[in-house]
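Tokenised fold entry reproduced for everyone:
>
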Amino acid sequence: MTVDALTDVTGLRVGHATRIGDGRLTGTTVVLAPEGGAVAAVDVRGGGPGTKETDALDPRNMVQKVEAVVLTGGSAYGLDAAAGVMAWLEERGRGVRVGADPAHVVPVVPAACVFDLGRGGDFRARPDAATGRAAVEAAAASAPGAPVPQGCVGAGTGAVVGALKGGIGTASTVLGSGVTVAALVVVNAVGSAVDPETGVLYGEFFQGRVEYPEAHVHEAARRRIAESAARNALPPLNTTLAVVATDADLSKAQAQKLAGTAHDGIARAVRPVHLLNDGDTVFALATGARPLAGEDPLALNPLLAACPDLVTRAIARAVRAAEPVSGPGGSWPSYEELYGAR
């Protein structure tokens, strides 16, 4: 049975550490690979990325597999969360072997951050190594194939999309070949997820399930959004992050291609996208459980077509799952608060 989430890729687990209250509105999310790691790649298209260990994922470089990926709030400060994940992995002998002693490993933990500084009221409240450790422990404690909490959790806790509250969303599909493809997205963009003329989520245009809000509902929502935006004095520094994953056996180069096409899913669901004050970053993970048709040079195409669709669907889910926030750091209504559940 599938749960329509990243954890439908067998072996992957997701854990959140959410930090709310006392000036905090932030958190960290960890995607934990099966023991032995997963082939990993990355594609960065935003103009203001905050990342760690992404050079190691270049197909030209030595590291082939990683044990975990960290998505975190806190801007560049929040990248400290990866240290907690590294320590947890080292304690279990998981990482790149660098000596004869099995304990001599260096866990390579790619990470990327979103800007949420000050959104809870305290600019200095941000994830640290302890937050990262809590997130990876939550991932390890979860059952195989467990549902993934969505909305304002983990790295999506302080996320904002345009003038609305953002969050985390996930989706998956099984292709005709039996290969599973999935996505998890932290939606925290300068651009908007909502068509200003109709109030429809851009991401739902591409799913063929559009229900147009009544005109008076849309006008009331527009007024509320404008009022909230006018009260928020924080800078429009954001970033949308994603992890796309599959159980197919991919090379690092193929995984990098997968990460690149996944950005199309962000562009469908958020407008504008990939701006200088976004740091849009997509990681790709391949667990290698299912071979691709090696004799077919186009065997990757179904995965490349599915990934953008899943990212788009995950973004729409994140926006619908988000809950409104109003506090000392700002006020962000949620989409469903304004327009109602579909």
